[in-house]
């Protein structure tokens, strides 16, 4: 493949990696990981609420990796409550899983930035070590993609298996009991999925850059090859 086409491919992959790093960093600090509603079962049972009456006992909840908010509804109107995972909820959540999600988000950001740098280096520089060539690009993309997958698996297990929303909804509630009514992952969670797919796409772009098309022009026999050519 001509060097100009390789530069274009590597520039594209580098920009995508940089966008993933920025997107993950933005997602890390938001409260848009999970959105849902919680039902005040105690209040609903006290008045035997059914049908449309249940709406008076359905509150809202949304949270991220560091903080969130909930609106409790027990028939007397919504009452908002802000909370923080550290240190408020540290005793009631699966702390090891939660910290692991944050850690893998940080690793994803770091390796996405590293990958973006090496993509740009391969586009505009001359690779001089193996890790600056295709092996390194595959490595950074694989690590970043793996971290994205681990983030989604761990956070999904924390929310679904460990019933994170219910634990948050019942935090500091002595009289009323809340149960998850509806729950869905929000924008920040899907941002991690998109970033994982982008890093997988980058691996395909690396492979695509190494193809030699049958109709490409042959190189001149007298042309000097070596450090000035890309390692593909």
Description:
The protein is α+β, with helices and mostly antiparallel strands and 232 residues long. The protein has six helices and five strands, in the order αβαβββαααβα. A hairpin with a 4-residue loop joins strand 3 and strand 4 (78-84). Helix 1 packs antiparallel against helix 3. The longest helix is centred in the middle third of the chain and has 30 residues, at 95-124. It is elongated. Mean pLDDT is 83; it is low at 211-232.
Give the helix/strand layout:
Blueprint (H helix, E strand, L loop, with lengths): L2 H26 L5 E7 H6 L11 E6 L3 E7 L4 E7 L10 H30 L9 H28 L2 H6 L8 E8 L1 H23 L23
Antiparallel strand pairs: 1-2, 1-5, 2-3, 3-4
Helix pairs in contact: 1-3, 1-6, 3-4, 4-6
Backbone CA Rg: 25 Å
The proportion of residues forming helix, as a percent range, comes to 40-55%
Proportion of residues in β-strands: 15-25%
Q: Compute the separation of the termini in Å.
A: 8 Å
Q: Which class of secondary structure composition applies to the elements?
A: alpha+beta
- Topology as a string of helices (H) and strands (E): HEHEEEHHHEH
Keywords, separated by commas or semicolons:
five-stranded antiparallel beta sheet, elongated, 232 residues, 6 helices, single chain
Outline of the structure:
With 232 residues, the protein is α+β, with helices and mostly antiparallel strands. It has helices spanning 3-28, 41-46, 95-124, 134-161, 164-169, 187-209, and strands at residues 34-40, 58-63, 67-73, 78-84, 178-185.
